[in-house]
Amino acid sequence: MKKSAIALVVYCLLMPVIGLAQKTARPGIEQLQSPQNPRLGFMIHGGAGVIKRGSLTPEREKAYREKLEEAVLAGYEELKAGKTSLDAIQRAIIIMEDSPLFNAGKGAVFTADGKNELDASVMDGKTQNAGAVAGLHRVKNPIILARAVMEKSPHVMMIGDGAEKFAREMKIKLVPEKYFYTERRWNSLQRIIKREKGKKVGSVSSLRELPENKFGTVGAVALDKEGNIAAGTSTGGMTYKKYGRVGDVPVIGAGTYAKNATCAVSATGWGEYFIRLGVAKEISSLMEHRGFTVQKATDQVIKKQLQDLGGDGGVIAIDKYGNMGISFNSEGMYRAYIDKTGKPVVEIYGSEEPVAASK
Length: 359
Ligand code: ASP
Prior knowledge:
- It contains 11 helices and 13 strands.
- The protein is α+β, with helices and mostly antiparallel strands.
- It has a single domain, classed as 4-Layer Sandwich (Glutamine Phosphoribosylpyrophosphate, subunit 1, domain 1), CATH 3.60.20.
- About 50% of the residues are buried.
- The structure holds aspartic acid.
- Aspartic acid (ASP) binds near residues 235, 237, 248, 249 and 268.
């Protein structure tokens, strides 16, 4: 038999085996999405930190899971109704800002001198416009003000009294400072003050050792039906932070970033490290210049670069096809997303079987 005839026979014999192998090769989430197959995408976080299994009472764990589920579903509803990715993240973040469970809005932590100082930012991946606010004492929902800075001012960042003056002009809701008081956060501050008595106030090393610093910032990333992505983040910062300290959250490129060509990112963790690394922009750059997938880029920055520098925390990210990346080097991260079938998935601990939400 000629060589070519032998090759043909071998090929025909192997055909069914090759076909079967192709059918059973299971592509990962990332490969399922493509320019031909875009979809809506929505993911939120409620902060990363030392969240050990068993450290939350069953009631508290239930409360977190329910609030995360409510927020992720509310944001997703906006997307399904044809609203923009910015509308979706704003909706979900307001729900978490209004809950005392998270370190943002109502549940914000206290500074070393017993105040609440709130920061937030938002970025639009389509236009790469961004808005950020820092050091707020009286704005009920800082994420709304961040968006107003982006859309209704020529600036990117506004702080303190000036930002609150702008809020008044924009008719954005202000509340008395005592609105942000919660017993739980106040008690955390008192415990730290007691422990830190005599030590150098607000030093970075002391902030790190504080078990109260479970972070708890909130954030969201979204992909809308027009294929535009956006990211937003809101926080009270870190307990016992020195008055006037600003973390990564309102720093565009550190705690928040969005660019349609790459990804939208929202971070949580020890802000000083996120600023030094430019975490969110670094993730985008790895995708843009090195061709990393969104998951690979988030892991590279969090599990390698952040880890090597000694920081901790995590990120959520999404690209324009709906591929999602989640990475954290802390013990846990409150997080939720809408899976490929449109169902909410809520997770808290480092490794856990995805807990399908109840609805
Ligand atoms: N990144 C925030 C900050 O440093 C804290 C957090 O994520 O909870 O202000």
